[in-house]
Amino acid sequence: MAQEVKNDIKKALQVNTIPLIAIMTAVTTVLTMLVKIPTPIRGYLNLSDTMIYFSAYAFGPWVGGIIGGLGPALSDLISGYPQWAIFTFVIDGLQAVLVGLLVKKFNPANIIIGSVIAGVWKVFGYFIAGGILSGFGPALGEIAGNSFQMAVGLIVGFALFTAVRQAYPPLVRLGNLGVKAGE
After folding, report:
1. CA distances from 136 to 37, 95, 140, 145 (A)
2. How many CB atoms lie within 10 A of CB 107?
């Protein structure tokens, strides 16, 4: 199992994926910064989940994890929320890895189940991070907003992936969804 994961990571992180990671990280950073709704525990709700889900669906767990972790973490650093950056990198990166590992076939049931499991991880992760940074009382109040952000991200990310996949069928060869181009 460990050797298989190592081989998957090595296969995903080749020289030709570095520009893809850079571009998608930049897009994710900008989209995360585009909509910022401040929250009581000195954080903000945003569109990061959309790109986290899209990247994991399109590029698999390892590339998606890098994009999903780096993009929102860079947004935290640039936007004046540096205290969140390391938490964001770990929580959002693992969210994308989970989606990529759990969603192996492109059908709505698999995508929804895998995405919701990863989203629950994110909500839990931000509850813990919020508890560390601001106390668990205020962090408890963030669960509804983080759940809403996750649900919107899942819906928009799924719709975006579906549209891009129809417009550019070879996209599926970049990910891990086990479907042939054009299906």
Report:
1. 20, 21, 6, 15
2. 11
Tokens of 4: 């298989």
Structural element, H or E, at residue 173 = none
Q: Cβ-count burial of 116 within 10 angstroms (0-12 exposed, 13-18 middle, 19+ buried)? A: middle
Residue in 111, 109, 96 with CA at minimum distance from that of residue 158: 111
Return the CA Rg of the chain.
16
Compute the CA torsion angle 120, 83, 142, 108 (nearest 10 deg). -30
**Which regions of 49-126 does DSSP assign to beta strands (E)?**
none
Q: How many alpha carbons lie under 13 Å from residue 179 in its C-beta half-sphere?
A: 20
Q: What is the pLDDT along the chain (183 residues), one digit of tens a residue?
A: 777 777 777 766 777 788 999 999 999 999 999 988 888 877 788 999 999 999 999 999 999 999 999 999 999 999 999 999 999 999 999 999 999 999 988 788 889 999 999 999 999 999 999 999 999 999 999 999 999 999 999 999 999 999 998 898 777 656 654 444 444
Longest dimension (CA), the chain: 49
Q: What whole-number distance in Å separates Cα of residue 151 and Cα of residue 49?
A: 8
Residue with tokens 């992936």: 161
